[in-house]
Design brief:
20 helices; alpha/beta; Rossmann fold; globular; Alpha-Beta Plaits; single chain
Amino acid sequence: MNLDYLQRILTSRVYDVARETPLQAAPQLSARLGNEVLLKREDLQPIFSFKLRGAYNRMAHMTAEERGRAVITASAGNHAQGVAYAGQRLGLRTVIVMPATTPEIKVSACRARGAEVVLHGDSYSDAEAHAYWLQAENGMTFVHPYDDPLVIAGQGTIGLEISQQIRAARYKVYVPIGGGGLIAGIAVFLKSISPQVEIIGVEPDDSDAMFQSLAAGERVTLPQVGIFVDGVAVRRVGAHTFGLAQRYVDRIVRVTTDEVCAAIKDVFDDTRAVQEPAGALALAGLKRDVEERGLSGETLVALTCGANMNFSRLKHVAERAEIGERREALLAVTIPEQPGSFKRFCRVVGGRSISEFNYRYAPRAEAHIFVGVQLDRADQRATLLDELAAAGYDAIDLTNDELSVVHLRHMVGGRAPEAVDERLYSFEFPERPGALLQFLESIDESWNISLFHYRNHGSAHGRVLAGIQVPEAALPRFRESLDRLGYRHADESENPAYKVFLT
């Protein structure tokens, strides 16, 4: 099988439109991690993503009969741009089905290249099902975003370039995984010519279809996927790509949203380029792998594979990057409710910078403050907690508490003793125009909303924190209504930060 793929890669048509991208050193990150870190800059392609390679290679090899029909595809954005670009160059009509959550920058780019864009569903899987229906109805040619040998071969030309550009005999390559086309193409080429090269896939911890499939020995369909890293939000990997990953991929690393945000900042610091979340995913995995395995003095390659991000999302990335790098500690601290308490607390914190301080006066003996403290290194958080305990302060570490990071840090001090039988729930729903109104209208009016927090992060999903007054006897009916609502939700009523600040 690998000989077939090698031939397809070596005879690929990608260089009709794509460029050979540089393998760029990341000196700041290399010094910090104690390894030589190199970035394969696929964000420098004409569509700011590697997806042009596979899409064009597939379409350039179409038969005359296939060219006579319109081309259709489903994509979260970058493959769509590749198909639109290729269609424009080859003179083909293209129809792109994209999830309604796709960043506007990707939708506009496709339309600018003459593609007909259809927005459908909230995930790639929804869009794919609708695209297949349109294909059957209209007799169009489907160009799969990852599970096609010619698409895989087009992406495999990246492996060919890396082999020609790198000087080290032994190295590790970190590749983001969505449906698996990119890692399949790179892995089959590099492992065929240099078996000692290590191929490591990287997935978000909430969209890890390849990790779960490899663990199970068969393709697994995820019930749902996170959509912050929208470029890899795939519920089921491809059949071709899964088989190649089984043979050629050495390891899968999973990372958090905060680690991806920190990696976006790392790329910017070394290159002044802004990656989309999927574009920085591989680097986030590289950093996690260095930490987990204690790698030192090695040559590590990470693909920066896409830079198509809405500008408004940068606010969310900036907020989470410091937490992802673990350079900030978020704490709930109990201090005496008396003049001078904050000053005494700051003396214990010492020369560290306080990045956030939320407090509201209450007529009682103790006050609860929410405080952010800047750190130089992640291990300083434990030292800070020890120092506070030695000084007699009761401190709760909230640094990794999602509810605190997203919502409660903005709501400290809001207590409502009159809100009896309050249940605290967090909700997620696809972010689109009118989504918040749709969410509010779908809430059963039988129960009073006693707390509500919503903040638009310019992301693909919206988040709401709601306090809802529900008597004990009505809980079964309430929970049934939440299931009918259909949004991802979680009962946060036992969250320690909620109990400290809001009840």
